[in-house]
Amino acid sequence: MRMVFGILDRVNRAVYYALGFLLAIISIVVLMQVIVRFVLTAAGINIAAPWTEELARYLLVWMIFLGAGVGCRRMQLIALTFVINWLPPWLGSAARLLALCLCLWLFGILLVYGWQFVQLIGRSEMSPVMQISKSWVYWAMPVGAALMIVNTLAFIAEALMPGGDMRATSSLGATE
Amino acid sequence: MTFLVLVMLGLFALSVPIAFALGLAALPYFLEKKLPLIAIPQVIFDSLDSFVLLAVPLYVLAGRLMMTGGVARRLVEFAVSLVGVLRGGLAAATVLTSMLFATISGSSAATAAAIGSTLIPEMEKKGYPRPFAAAVVASSGELGVIIPPSVPMVIYAVITGLSITDLFIAGILPGLLIGFSLILAIVVVSSIKGYGERETFTLKTYVLGISAATRRASLSLVMPFIILGGIYGGVFTPTEAAVAAVAYALILGCFVYREIPFRDLPKIFAESAFTSAVVMVIVGFAFVFAYAMALMQAPQQIASAIRGVSSNPLVFLLLVNLFLFVVGMFMETFAALIILAPVLAPVATQLGIDPVHFGLIMIVNLAIGMVTPPVGVNLFVACGIANVSMEQLMRPLLVFLGVLVINMLIITYVPWLSLALIR
Q: Residue B46: closest CA among chain A residues belongs to which residue?
């Protein structure tokens, strides 16, 4: 069991740093757009780079779904926890467990219908500028949902083990 | 519709994350009407695949880079040199720094954290009580989302389809009003209570101090001009201005001030990406919720219910103020904004209220929510840095809350403040 958690946490760590990598590429790509628009145009060179905007948007979609997936491991998604912390511990834990089961139901729907969306729509749709299959974008949902499911199950398993607390939350630090 | 809202509130109480609670609350409606569930991914992708939304992680990143890269500290030195000689000068400088920092950063907690970590210990050294120092930081931090750029404004624009540039510009005068009235309140309170050591004032040292601090901060002071000037002059879109801020902060932090070691960069990028992803995922599911609400014609129903009470826009605005104040006490600001904007904004438009002005009213209202207990992100940040309890913070905070509420009413009933600068 411990080994499973070890592997999972390594995966989450890798995804967490991948988020930073995605943001770095987004920054570079949008910066390129600015440079193309201002610097090169001022220099009399007229090249348009509409793919920069498209690529940045698609990477953003991946960043959001992967980020939400990682957030499920330590319950770092924004939630109101004052009710479950105010209730007696056993009741608060039961409420959180119910909440997590409901989340798992939603994640299952996201996984199944996200996958169907890739099959039915992503396959036939091409991105307007880059002309790549849009399934590259739409895979973000089933992949993110799978990560959410695995991480939520791991959170529940850890909370049920001795010393675990179902009501545990981790704050994001000093940022919204 | 009432059922949908009750389900949502129940899910919030169970501590279901806001994003998923919005998705789950819409599900019964989808199932009952036998709507194809494949509409869910469709709606989510349509809302998240947005160039405007890209501004959110970029402003968060720029804020992080400025905090760690030495920009924040230089702005503090600059503000202290300007107003440090007043009674309560250091506390006034805290507000001034928040205003400067807010012109670059789009988030209120980031503003409070960046400024609190340097200025709360300084204020304590100069004889301010710690709860007072924390209250100053918490309340001036809200300027981060009112003075442009502002992450909540970006999100509000995405939801309502307004121009972000207009919203940004609308925030300038209200932000100045709030900033200067907070400074006034600080000077008055400090004079009455005798906070802060008074330093001997000579014109020569004052001018020398300002010129030295301005020189040290000069490169950081250029940043507001790049961002605001670029957006206001119509040169940059807000997303482009955000990436310009990132690039400039990176150059200053890594090469000019050399306060960000390269090995810290992956961590800074990952943190920024993660914190903004967690906010943006709410946007995606809020659109699912709004989709179900729209199919039920809920905004129309709410609008007619409100008109049943009163069709006077001034009464409506007062009700909105009261309602948002209560909501802001208990709910996370972003979540409240994302859920309520699609419901309230159309009603306001029907009553003849300018949509940009109404957007600003919502932002200012919910920014106060960041400073009102029990749930207020600025309070958590300020208490954490100052190491005081929420109860200790309450007494000094009340004066500032009063100032903020008065400002909110002025901003609500004087549309000119929000609309004067928009062309």
A: A61
